[in-house]
Design brief:
The protein is about 50% helix and about 10% strand. By secondary structure, it is α/β, with parallel strands linked by helices. It has a single domain (about 5-205), classed as 3-Layer(aba) Sandwich (Rossmann fold), CATH 3.40.50. The protein has a five-stranded parallel β-sheet, with helices on both faces. The radius of gyration is 17 Å and the shape is globular.
Length: about 210
């Protein structure tokens, strides 16, 4: 099989992380999630902690002003006043994602990978989703001490955060099917079924 890249974007509680890991094992290729923060830190000289904190600094107010923050590809020099801005930190991370896509077959988990790599013929962009009830049950299985109200709040907050992060840097809707090549309902297919569907489609993108 020729070189390929798969991007996985997922709703909270949809099983997207497990699906990414299983897909990585099935294909024998690495997947990158928080590893991207470490790599961006190494390239920029900026502490990895700041990249992690940048993810958490995107809120509702920033989401409204997204039109001014959409990713342009520009990486600012160290002497810039905005060198440590969330925008520049994202640009370093985006640079790593695009370099990985050029160098090796891999899976990019989240981080707006589907947006950054759109238009490449060797990239399969996947969105994993599921009904709220199914996601609630999945989160409950790993959070036995949480009440149903706490679980639903966690899902709502995390989904809102991911949507805000995506819109802040891309200006687009995180759940818009037009941004993906394949959208899968994990409650219908199961984790293994999602992996199987991706493997079936992947040859068309290599």
């Amino acid at each position: 099989m020729n070189k390929f890249v798969i991007t996985i974007t997922r709703e909270t509680g949809s099983g997207g992380h497990n699906i990414t890991k299983k897909l990585s094992e099935a294909l024998g290729v690495p997947y990158y999630d928080r590893d991207l923060l470490r790599k961006a830190s190494e390239v920029s000289g900026i502490h990895e902690r700041l990249f992690g904190e940048a993810d958490e600094r995107i809120g509702f107010k920033e989401m409204i002003s997204a039109a001014e923050k959409v990713y342009t590809g520009e990486v600012l020099p160290p002497d810039s006043d905005d060198y440590l801005s969330t925008r520049n930190l994202f640009s370093f991370q985006a640079k790593i994602i695009m370099e990985l896509a050029e160098q090796e077959s891999c899976i990019i988990h989240g981080r707006c990978g589907n947006f950054l790599l759109q238009g490449r013929p060797d990239v399969l962009r996947v969105f994993i989703h599921a009904p709220l009830e199914a996601r609630r049950d999945r989160v409950a299985a790993f959070s036995l001490a949480w009440s149903e109200r706490e679980i639903l709040r966690h899902i709502r907050v995390e989904d809102k955060r991911r949507a805000a992060y995506y819109h802040y840097y891309t200006g687009e809707d995180w759940r818009d099917a037009a941004g993906y090549d394949l959208c899968l309902d994990s409650s219908l297919l199961g984790e293994d079924g999602c992996v199987e569907r991706i493997l079936q489609v992947l040859p068309f993108y290599t």
